[in-house]
Amino acid sequence: MTASTSETVATYLTNGRRLQSRATVWFRASVRRWFIFPLVALITLLALSSTLLGFTVIRALLQEAQDQMLLTSSEIITAGFTARIQETSRLLLQSAQFDALIRGLDDNDAARVARATSDLIRLYGVTAVILTDASGFPPSPTDDSLDRPTVPLPGDGSASLSAPARRALAQMLASARSDALIGFGSDGSADEPVFCVAKAVPGKSYGAVVVGVTTRELLKGAAAATLKDYLVIYDADGSPLFATLARSASGLAELPAPPAVDAASAGADAAAAPPVATARVAGASYRYVVRPLSVDGTLLGYVGVWQPSKLIFQAAGWARWFLLGTIGLCSALVILLGWQLAGRVTRPVTDMARAAWAFAEGDFTANVSETAIGELALLGKAFNRMADQVHAHTNVLQEQASHSNYLFQASAELGRTLDLDESLQTAAEAIYGLGGLAYVVILVGRGELGPYTCRAVRGLPPEVGARIYGKEYAVPLWGVMARALVSRQPLTIDDVVAQNRPQPGEFDWDIGGSVLLFPVTSANEPSALIIAGTQAPRQFGEGSLGDMVFALARIAGHSILNARLYQEATRSQEQLVTLQMISRVMASTPDIQAVLNVVVREASEIMGGSPAWLYIREPESGVDQLHGRAGMTSPELWTGVNQDAVAWVLRAGQPIFYDPQQPLAPSPILVDSGMAMCVPLEAGEDTIGALIVLSRDRRRVFIENDMIVLRTLANSAAAVLQTAHLARRL
């Protein structure tokens, strides 16, 4: 920045501060004093008046809504309670258990009475069984005039009937009816009443048997379940029997009596809506409705539904706070609008001062508003254009720095380990972490023809990743994999659909819109293939994604090769040390059978627990022997291909690779790797046997280093066996 430019910026900032400190402050204060404050005061006064009027109207509407809800609830509860009583009484009077109870009482059969009583309690929730005299009154426990059963009955001695129930029972006995609904009673507890039905028992000293069911049992399934905390039950005389509002006797006495409705007019008045009344119980105010409880034209009692009056005040209070909140919000909006209007004139100047100061501090994202006119608008546009250009160059530099930092961190992470599996997973994670990629798959194999095994997956759905992980892939000569492996160069397909590559069937996952294949080569031999793809086409050719994937894949390739070389070197070292120990053990073992067992066991262990066999020729006896390791060489593994391989090796005296699930190649000596190995045991110029090893679960491909180790073991075993034969002959 030149001296003249610095002087211009400094002068501009000084003028901006002076304008903001004088004219801007004065104008904003004037707008607030003469416009905003009077408008806010007027709106607040009107809003408070509207709130008072609206609060009154809302309270009246809420009162009417609560009364209507109370009437509807009481109607539903009464209808459900009535239907439940009618159904329960019908089932009880017609039940075989009730008849069994009466027969047991007639015969004074304690077992039948106990069984019938237990069934009534279990099936219908019966809590009281009352025996009455011929006039319908329950006798006292000390009265011996009745033929009492020897079995104790529920509520015996403590259960009782209300006055209306006793009258109904007396009417039933006087009218010679056999059963009837008689009303409410008590099972001896003070919690809640029981609803009673009775059956006459002619020819006995007692006149009837009364069975009581708890009110709570009758309320099950009724519509009152949600309002059971505000329920009052009265008998036919209007006396409260049960109330969830007041649980003590003194509390029941405070409840008002229901309207006087006789049984004859109960059915006629059922269609009329009862009045909604107000009462105070235990210091609290309630609104309630009482409806008659009638079954088949017989008045049994009354049902009252109560609700606290405070619900109205709560709802009204919520409405009041809502209105006050609305007023406050409107006032705040008016104040904000005034503030915006006050800053309308000075905003272009203050924005330019702010942007210039931010630009001087190194922030190039702040732009000047172009709403001004005249020279200020032209100056703002020029300033924005300059800031945009600097910002664009800054973004490019930041992106390059970010990519360099990511490559550095990924290189450090990849160079941290020499484990092949961890290196593969880290490489896939690092490449996928670049962003913009749909998936990353790494295949590991050897040579141009493969097969290659999937060893790392990122980005694919879990079920797809689980399906392809560990799977072997052949390399079709016509496919893109073969082209990348043969050329040893990265292959990019920008548009899979337009170029019609790769062909269907080459990969068994969604290849996406564009794909990049990066072969990892060692000594001009491919050993791994990194496959990265994107959902949209032409993603690798545009932008920096392709370059970043190439750079990171090259770094990952070096890490994979180093890990693989380290793994092979470690395995070769372990195998050589093991061979030395095996040779020492075999040399110290005089028994031929023990030598054979050692050879088979150690051949299996040295190749990672793979199944192994030792085929021995016996020229003297003419009987050949096949030795396998117990527990690992099942008969089904010994296929005809293995026999063909042994016959070829015995005939040619050369080791071979082969696949036990495929026919033996016409020239197996030309195969440089495989799922199985067969090496000869040579004693001088004679081949006395063969050592066979199969890849366990087909997850390991044997290579030339494995062949060298196995052939060394076979030569040692042949020398020991020849020495043992000579010793046995002598």
At a glance:
The protein has 730 residues and is an alpha+beta fold. The chain is built from 18 helices and 21 strands. Helix 1 packs across helix 9 (347-360) and helix 2 (96-107) runs antiparallel to helix 3.
Characterization of the model:
With 730 residues, this protein is an alpha+beta fold. The protein has four domains: 223 residues, no CATH class; 38 residues; 152 residues, GAF domain (Beta-Lactamase, 2-Layer Sandwich), CATH 3.30.450.40; 141 residues, GAF domain (Beta-Lactamase). Helices cover 50% and strands 18% of the residues. It has 18 helices and 21 strands. A six-stranded antiparallel beta sheet has the order 13-12-11-16-15-14, with helices on both faces. α9 packs parallel to α10 and α15 packs antiparallel against α16. About 3% of the residues have low confidence.
Mean pLDDT: 74
Adjacency order of strands in the biggest sheet: 13-12-11-16-15-14
Specify the biggest β-sheet: 6 strands, antiparallel
Q: Uncertain regions: pLDDT < 50 for 5+ in a row?
A: 19-24, 223-228, 260-268
Counted by DSSP, the helix tally is: 18
Binned, the helix content reads 40-55%
Shape: flat
Beta content comes to 15-25%
Q: What's the end-to-end separation, in Å?
A: 105 Å
Annotation, overall tally of beta strands: 21
Over the alpha carbons, how many angstroms does the gyration radius reach? 50 Å
Q: What structural class do you assign from the helix and strand content? A: alpha+beta
Number of domains: 4
